[in-house]
């Protein structure tokens, strides 16, 4: 039986602010919330479609150049178009892939897009991204606990 909450953290720790997803995943793993599974990868892949099944909530965490600081919640809609690549899926394409292979979508899928500005190879996390990380952590922790609390009720 899969954990009710799946957090898919996306990003490359070697590329500056792109480390935001993996850094949030590390904090969540340290919190060891029962009922929360954390997966970390450089990018969303078609195989992640299989990880969605049987979840109550899926949160995709990723750095974003477009999100307003410090972060924003997004609700992706499934994109059912056929892809010409199997690499670097968007959240919408991931949901569309899950539907195409006959998987039931979770009732609650969200993207936590954390503002990042510096994505150069070998760069450290920027000062701004560090502040955004702290704000996003509070929101991610609350969203996981909210789901788990609702399941216990």
Explain what the structure shows.
It is globular and about 40 Å long. It has 153 residues and is an alpha/beta fold. It has helices at residues 20-31, 91-100, 127-152; strands at residues 5-10, 36-41, 57-64, 71-74, 108-115. The chain contains three helices and five strands. It has one domain: Rossmann fold, CATH 3.40.50. The model has no long low-confidence stretch (mean pLDDT 91). The two termini are 19 Å apart.
Please tell me the total number of domains: 1
Question: What is the H/E string?
Answer: EHEEEHEH
Low-confidence stretches: none
Provide the helix percentage.
25-40%
Radius of gyration: 15 Å
Shape: globular
Structural class from helices and strands?
alpha/beta
Overall CATH architecture: 3-Layer(aba) Sandwich
Beta-strand residue percentage: 15-25%
Number of helices: 3
**CATH H-level superfamily title:** HybD-like
Could you give a short account of the major beta sheet? 5 strands, mixed
In the CATH scheme, the class would be Alpha Beta
Determine the N-to-C terminus distance.
Answer: 19 Å
**Sequence of strands across the biggest β-sheet:** 2-1-3-5-4
